[in-house]
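Entry for the shared binder. Reason: the reviewer on the internal report wants the predicted structure included alongside the sequence.
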Amino acid sequence: MNDTIVAISTAIGIGAISIVRLTGNKAISIVNNCFKGTDLTKVESHTIHYGYIYDKEELIDEVLVSVMKAPKTFTREDVVEINCHGGIISTNKVLETILNFGARLAEPGEFTKRAFLNGRIDLVESESVMDLISSKSEEANKLALSQLKGNLSYLIEDFRNKLKDLLSSIEVNIDYPEYHDIEEITIEKIQENMKEMKQKLKRLIEESKNSKIIKQGIKTIIVGRPNVGKSSILNQLLQEEKAIVTSIAGTTRDTVEGEILIDGILLNLIDTAGIHNTEDTVEKIGVKKSLSLINDADLVIVVLNYNEKLTDEDEIILEKTKNKKRIIVLNKNDLDKNINIDRIKQEENIVETTATNIEGMKSLKDKIKELFQLEQLKNNDYNYLTNARQISLAKKAYQSLLDAEKGINDKRPIDMIEIDLKECFDHLGEIIGITYDEEIIDHLFANFCVGK
């Protein structure tokens, strides 16, 4: 933390500008030693200066240098950003010059890590930085911005403040054991507050499954026997000829993938090989892969032929997907109805359509929106736990509340109940990084891109 780090903060390639960023207590002096223009050690904070970067006598680039002095910076250290001409050679030459003058190349995520360690942002806000960069949809972007603003952190802090109040009441009870009425009041207060906290924390955990949908999208597998129109449905949803469509059964032998947005939520579509008995070695591999993908899918679109009776292969597919969230598409409804509908009429999510035109896909999209409550999802406040680390710690905190509740019901000593409440307090603190394991922190920031 005492050294000065540097990295390229923009994507490598040809562009109008590139930014080389430094942070640390020597950031200004290092750049000043290779900058010809204004004396950067004497300028005001948050100002931009025109000049040239030199490596000894060699001109490297014409630049604009932004100087931002601690503590009002992203890292709470001195930060300098060199805006140079975009391009691989010029940008790398500027970086090389800064390294020659004493800076160290930053590790992945080290700028954000310093912001966290210096108290500029908490751990939830740190994680949201990378979520913001990697977001692929408008809703994922909104979720990351909500976390970056500290909305979830405020909610966790509110839980911790209530627990802090309860723990203070218990300490009074322990300090003055001769007053039995204090113990009764304390127990009542714990029960009253725990009931509310349990409900809110349980709802937070349950609703946070929505964050996976918002961040990663809905993994959607299109399955069916050969020649029922799976590839045509994929192409119509994507509005491009992604998959080859022919009247020959078994045309799709491997998965074909694509992405679309429905109400701001990403739909990750995978068209699979037709599921049927075959002696063809390549087709067998494709069928096996199709069946294995069903297990990991968030949504399975089962395609059946409206114009044909159900086959044994259709029955296998229906059985295989019965415990999954699924939509049954009766495709080719522009033809005569021959499907034996009694087998599936109890299903709630049935769509009749034809994949030969885009209008035929509207009912399918509407069913997806209904099934995942996408309209409601967009109207929520985005106070979600957004990754496995946060959800795991929240579940541990919730279990500690249950343990405390059981302790009260079992009439355990109040100092034993205090242990469970302190555990809950600590687990919540780990979510926002008030307490943390250094190894976990290193691993978390190692997944960031260099320069952020």
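Summary line for the report: The chain has a mean pLDDT of 84.
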